[in-house]
Design goal:
Shape: elongated
Strand content: under 5%
Helix content: over 70%
Radius of gyration: 22 Å
Mean pLDDT: 82
Number of strands: 0
Distance between the termini: 56 Å
Largest sheet: none
Low-confidence stretches: none
Length: about 170
């Protein structure tokens, strides 16, 4: 009886060390991943916006407003403001100037703004919408629902697997 208890106590101590070590490794991995995402995010947002607008010359303000609404709609839908979303919003705002966009966070206003754009302009705004859906390194269910709704309204389909691959 004493031998059994001694063995179980020794085994539980060993198991505790393994579990604590695994937990600490997982937490450290997540912290390093988030630190990398947050460190690279602002410069990546600026580079990606520049790539989206490359070769466009002068972009209409309505397109830039729609891009701001895309980011704001993602923030509202996800109920979270990641620092990279703020960097993305600042990057677009620098191109617009300091102009207040009415109903910035209204998804219906965003959908109405999309309907008023040409196909090419709409494509640029949708690229920003996709970009704003994974600033934290993953795509949430709410973001997938938002993308699905907007793309279906545009007569397109969302490939969730491809979206997660891009993420």
């Amino acid at each position: 009886r004493i031998g059994g208890r001694t063995i179980i106590k020794a085994y539980l101590t060993f198991t505790d060390v393994l579990l604590t070590g695994a937990w600490d490794a997982w937490v450290a991995w997540r912290m390093v991943r988030q630190a990398r995402i947050r460190a690279l995010g602002p410069s990546a947002c600026e580079t990606l916006i520049r790539d989206i607008l490359r070769g466009e010359g002068k972009v209409r303000r309505d397109v830039l407003f729609a891009m701001q609404r895309a980011v704001a709609s993602t923030i509202v839908r996800d109920r979270d403001v990641h620092p990279n979303l703020l960097a993305l919003m600042r990057s677009i705002s620098r191109r617009v100037g300091h102009v207040k966009v009415p109903d910035l966070d209204d998804t219906k206003a965003f959908l109405t703004a999309l309907d008023a754009l040409s196909r090419h302009e709409c494509d640029m705004v949708l690229e920003v919408l996709v970009l704003s859906s994974f600033p934290d390194g993953h795509v949430s269910r709410a973001e997938v629902e938002l993308l699905t709704t907007i793309l279906e309204r545009q007569g397109r389909a969302l490939d969730v697997k491809a979206l997660k691959g891009v993420c």
